[in-house]
């Protein structure tokens, strides 16, 4: 099969042996594969990423001196089954799969490991247990976005945001756009998005953001239709005084029970939910400094460098900080069906398509935020420019 191989940061299209499915695995013929921001990072920073992965318990991440086939956002058609599979689908059935394989109970990240070549190829291996049939005649272009959209859905679910709570999305790259799309699918009424790139701001509006701001000229916090009532520590203290003055007017009522009930039901003052989708040093500290009290910050962007922030800012305002990664099988499946039934439209993210010979040009184009969001690879295409 033909595949685009990267080693020491250089791409080459090569003829590789067709992968053979092992126990519990399926070989699929790739119809589309998305280029992810993590692919761009891994191309040049994989050794640093491998060290970080090893520190958290995964030792199989790619190294710069290895020959790697990238690609973990793929869809394709059933080609061949390995041993000990249920053979759930006929050959030619369109499927998507979570990008992870297991060899002798050792997990390998598809497209980010030398032991699990990815979707920048004509064929790729998947684990049958985390492979899902594409429903409703969904196009390969849209099915390929199941993986990045599932990242957005997981972030929204982990945020525990309610429909009336304002959401701020900082950074409108592909993952930020996925988060915006999924917030609106979840029924969140007000989504404020910010990005320096005019093109990304345009895409944020198309994806459903209610307010879009240029951080160089406007504050996202001030642009929200309903500014928070509590904006600082003094407001929090005054709120406590106001509540106590009211509840103590009621005779013979154990007012402390009201505080206990509010705590149990999580009904205290609630600020907005902020989704950090940039992933560069300094962003978390900026958010903690500017965000109002009782904000929940969900860190979706993957910062590759060491970072620092002032904990006192978060402490004084009781800001909650959450970090999220990936998705679970249920979220992956649900995302696929949300796309297939029209609840979610990922098409605004797709800005170009190339063949295997156009991967290097696509990486160069994605280095600028002003034109592209998500470029797909069609292994059967001869396009060399997105």
Explain what you see.
The protein is an alpha/beta fold. Helix 3 packs across helix 4 and helix 3 packs across helix 11 (329-340). It has twelve helices and 17 strands. The model has no long low-confidence stretch (mean pLDDT 93).
Quote the average pLDDT.
93
C-alpha-based Rg, rounded: 23 Å
SSE-based structural type: alpha/beta
Order of helices and strands: EEEHEEEEEEHHEHEHEHHHEHEHEHEHE
Name the assembly state.
single chain
- By CATH, the topology of the largest domain is Quinone Oxidoreductase, Chain A, domain 1
What are the SSEs and their pairings?
Layout: E1 2-7, E2 10-15, E3 25-34, H1 37-55, E4 73-81, E5 94-97, E6 100-103, E7 106-109, E8 123-127, E9 131-133, H2 140-143, H3 146-159, E10 167-170, H4 174-185, E11 191-194, H5 198-206, E12 211-213, H6 220-223, H7 233-247, H8 255-264, E13 273-276, H9 283-290, E14 296-299, H10 311-316, E15 320-323, H11 329-340, E16 350-354, H12 359-366, E17 374-377
Helix pairs in contact: 3-4, 3-11
In brief:
With 386 residues, this protein is α/β, with parallel strands linked by helices. It has 12 helices and 17 strands.
Throw out a few tags for this protein.
single chain; 386 residues; alpha/beta; Quinone Oxidoreductase, Chain A, domain 1; Rossmann fold; 7-stranded mixed β-sheet; 6-stranded parallel β-sheet; 12 helices; elongated; oxidoreductase; ADH-like_C; transmembrane helix
